[in-house]
């Protein structure tokens, strides 16, 4: 398997796209290899079947230009029960694909699965660089250069913003692939996702953009400072 430049990780299909689709679109347009990992199939979602969500994810991948999408099939709303397995499998994927950057959900979110994934990925990124951790795995130790956190349902002050003005409409088209989640259909259950959620995403990216002098931006948080040699 070829190495990745960015590995973006979420609990459910659409998590990564909500927080980072614009950034991934820009990376793919630069010729970088982008991978997405969903830890679950979101089988407990109020709307949409697993099969439909997978079809929607495939459509989103085509628009994103993603090089690969993975799904570990771990239990939706049961990630804490399989925490050690999840960490080990993420470690193995990181070591195999050697991403320069890993993206994970921000650690505070109304959905417990998003918070669980944030903690799992943080531990996995750290453990992936420990030579003696899971030494029997087929890939040597490797630690990504950056771990950044993207926003799903929570907005906080970002440490980094990416100007996505040029691909903002493309990002929204990626999100619209998930019709089962963001549209109130005749057989849908009303949820926060199909009650103006895409408009709130648009507002958030516009707000981040206004704060930094561009039209639209995606925000990311880092848990560690960055070293620079000039301002």
UniProtKB/TrEMBL annotation:
<dbReference type="GO" id="GO:0071793">
    <property type="term" value="P:bacillithiol biosynthetic process"/>
</dbReference>
<dbReference type="InterPro" id="IPR003737">
    <property type="entry name" value="GlcNAc_PI_deacetylase-related"/>
</dbReference>
<dbReference type="InterPro" id="IPR024078">
    <property type="entry name" value="LmbE-like_dom_sf"/>
</dbReference>
<dbReference type="InterPro" id="IPR023842">
    <property type="entry name" value="Bacillithiol_biosynth_BshB1"/>
</dbReference>
<dbReference type="GO" id="GO:0016811">
    <property type="term" value="F:hydrolase activity, acting on carbon-nitrogen (but not peptide) bonds, in linear amides"/>
</dbReference>
<dbReference type="GO" id="GO:0019213">
    <property type="term" value="F:deacetylase activity"/>
</dbReference>
<dbReference type="Pfam" id="PF02585">
    <property type="entry name" value="PIG-L"/>
</dbReference>
<protein>
    <submittedName>
        <fullName>Bacillithiol biosynthesis deacetylase BshB1</fullName>
    </submittedName>
</protein>
């Amino acid at each position: 398997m070829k190495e990745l430049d960015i590995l973006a990780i979420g609990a459910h299909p659409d998590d990564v796209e909500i927080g980072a689709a614009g950034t991934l679109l820009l990376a793919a347009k630069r010729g970088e290899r982008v991978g997405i990992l969903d830890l679950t199939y979101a089988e407990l979602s109020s709307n949409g079947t697993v099969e439909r969500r997978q079809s929607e994810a495939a459509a989103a991948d085509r628009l994103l230009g993603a090089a690969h999408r993975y799904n570990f099939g771990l239990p939706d709303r049961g990630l804490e029960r399989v925490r050690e397995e999840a960490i080990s499998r993420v470690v193995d994927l990181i070591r195999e694909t050697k991403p320069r950057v890993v993206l994970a959900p921000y650690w505070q979110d109304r959905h417990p699965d998003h918070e669980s994934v944030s903690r799992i990925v943080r531990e996995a990124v750290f453990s992936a660089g420990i030579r003696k951790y899971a030494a029997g795995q087929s890939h040597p130790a490797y630690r990504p250069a950056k771990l950044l956190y993207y926003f799903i349902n929570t907005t906080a002050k970002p440490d980094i913003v990416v100007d996505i003005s040029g691909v903002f409409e493309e990002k929204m088209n990626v999100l619209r692939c998930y019709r089962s989640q963001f549209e109130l259909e005749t057989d849908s259950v009303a949820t926060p996702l199909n009650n103006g959620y895409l408009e709130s995403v648009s507002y958030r990216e516009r707000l981040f953009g206004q704060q930094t002098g561009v039209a639209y931006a995606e925000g990311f948080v880092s848990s560690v400072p960055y070293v620079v040699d000039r301002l």
